[in-house]
Design a protein that fits this description.
Elements (H helix, E strand, L loop, with lengths): L4 E2 L13 E5 L3 H12 L3 E6 L6 H6 L3 E4 H7 L2 E4 L3 H12 L8 E4 L3 H4 L10 E7 L3 H9 L6 E7 L5 H11 L2 H4 L1 E3 L2 H16 L1 H16 L4 H10 L1 H19 L2 H14 L2 H15 L2 H9 L7 H11 L2 H10 L14
Helix pairs in contact: 1-6, 3-4, 9-10, 9-14, 10-11, 11-17
C-alpha cells in the first residue's frame, strides 16, 4: 500500500499553539526552520553552544538564544539540526537531562535514531520532518509562497498526538504547501544515505569529474570541458526537475537524445548496479555508519575525512570552475562559499 501524502488541509498549525519550539543549531536547515516557524506564528527559541558564531546572527534575526541545554529545558518541541556525528554527544550531555514527559524530540534525518546512537526515553514523542532540499531552498521557497516537499515519520508516539504535531511542524515550515510524504526512520535513513552516495553527490560528482578529466586528457581546453561536463548539468537537471526524463528529452536535440539512449547503458553498466547494491547493503547493515562515526571521532578526529576533502578541493576542476564562474555576470550573487 502506498504511503500517505499530507497537504495543507491535513495539517493544523494550531496544534503548536502554546508550545515552545527549540531549534538546536542555526546552520543551513536551522535558520530556515526557525524563520519559517516564526513567520507561521510559532514561538521559537534557538539552542547553540557557548561561543557559536551563529549566536549573534540568530539574535539579529529576532530570536532568543540559549545554550542547547537551557533551550531544551524551556521547550516542548526540540528539533535537533546539527551534524549527524555531533548529535549523540549533544543529546547525552544537553538534551536528555532536560527532557520532560510529553515533549516531542524531532529530527530532520533518521541516522542517530535508526542506528541507535540516540535512545530516547519511552515517555516522549520522537518524530521526523525531513525537507527534501537544502535549508536555503526551504527558506526561499517559503518566502516565495511555495514550499519544499518533506518526509514525516513517527518513531515513538507517547502522547497519541505525535503525527498531528509533526504535521503541524511540517506545515509551519512550508512543507504541506508541496506535500509531506509519510515514511519511517529506517526507510528515510537508508534511502537518503544511498541517494547521496550513489547518485546525488558521490555518483554525480564522480561522473562530472571523470568527464572533465577525459576531455582534458584528450587535449581539449579545460574551460570547454567544464562547460560541457559540469556547467550544463544544472540545465539538464532543471529540465528533469520540471518535467521528468521525458520532458528533458523533449527539450534537447535529437542528436543529444540519441546519444542519451545508446551511451547511458555503456556508462552505467551492470557492474555499476552491482556496486550500488553493495553500497546499499553497507548502509543497511550499519557498515557505513560505523566507518563514518569512527572516522569522525577519537584522537585522530576527521583525519581521513579532511584528507579526502583537501584532495577533492585541489582537483583541477575546482580551479577551472572558479575561473569560469567568475565570468558570469551574476558571479557575486548568492555565493554559498565566501573566500
Amino acid at each position: 500500500m502506498a504511503n500517505r501524502i499530507f497537504y495543507q488541509s491535513d495539517c493544523n498549525i494550531a496544534n503548536l499553539d502554546g508550545k515552545t519550539i527549540a531549534i538546536i543549531g542555526y546552520g543551513s536547515q536551522g535558520h530556515a526552520h526557525a524563520l519559517n516557524l516564526k513567520e507561521s506564528g510559532c514561538k521559537v527559541i534557538i539552542g547553540l553552544y557557548e561561543g557559536s558564531k551563529s549566536w549573534a546572527k540568530a539574535e539579529e534575526q529576532g530570536f532568543e538564544v540559549f545554550t542547547a541545554a537551557e533551550a531544551a529545558k524551556q521547550a516542548d518541541v526540540i528539533m535537533i539540526l546539527i551534524n549527524d556525528e555531533k548529535q549523540a554527544d549533544l543529546y547525552k550531555n544537553d538534551i536528555a537531562p532536560n527532557l520532560e514527559a510529553g515533549n516531542m524530540l524531532m529530527f530532520a534525518h533518521g541516522f542517530n535514531i535508526h542506528f541507535q546512537c540516540i535512545v530516547p526515553p519511552a515517555d516522549v514523542d520522537v518524530t521526523m520532518i525531513a525537507p527534501k532540499a537544502p535549508g536555503h531552498t526551504v527558506r526561499s521557497e517559503y518566502q516565495a509562497g511555495k514550499g519544499t516537499p518533506c518526509l514525516v515519520a513517527v518513531y515513538q508516539d507517547a502522547t497519541g498526538k505525535a503525527l498531528d504535531n509533526a504535521l503541524a511542524y511540517g506545515a509551519a515550515i512550508g512543507g504541506a504547501r508541496a506535500g509531506i510524504l509519510e515514511t519511517t526512520f529506517r526507510v528515510e535513513t537508508e534511502t537518503d544515505l544511498f541517494g547521496e552516495q550513489a547518485v546525488l553527490c558521490g555518483g554525480v560528482c564522480a561522473l562530472m569529474q571523470a568527464g572533465f578529466e577525459t576531455l582534458v586528457d584528450a587535449g581539449y581546453d579545460p574551460r570547454n570541458a567544464y562547460f560541457e561536463c559540469v556547467h550544463e548539468m544544472k540545465l539538464i537537471v532543471d529540465l528533469i526537475y520540471q518535467s521528468g526524463f521525458a520532458g528533458m528529452r523533449y527539450s534537447i536535440s535529437n542528436t543529444a537524445e540519441y546519444g542519451d539512449y545508446i551511451t547511458g547503458p555503456k556508462i552505467i553498466t551492470e557492474d555499476t548496479k552491482k556496486a550500488m547494491k553493495q553500497i546499499l547493503s553497507d548502509i543497511q547493515d550499519g557498515t557505513f555508519a560505523s566507518e563514518f562515526l569512527q572516522d569522525m571521532s577519537g584522537a585522530g578526529r576527521q583525519v581521513h575525512f579532511r584528507a579526502m576533502r583537501q584532495k577533492a578541493a585541489e582537483h583541477p576542476v575546482e580551479k577551472v570552475g572558479e575561473e569560469v564562474r567568475s565570468l558570469y555576470s551574476w558571479s557575486n550573487e548568492d555565493k554559498l562559499i565566501n573566500n
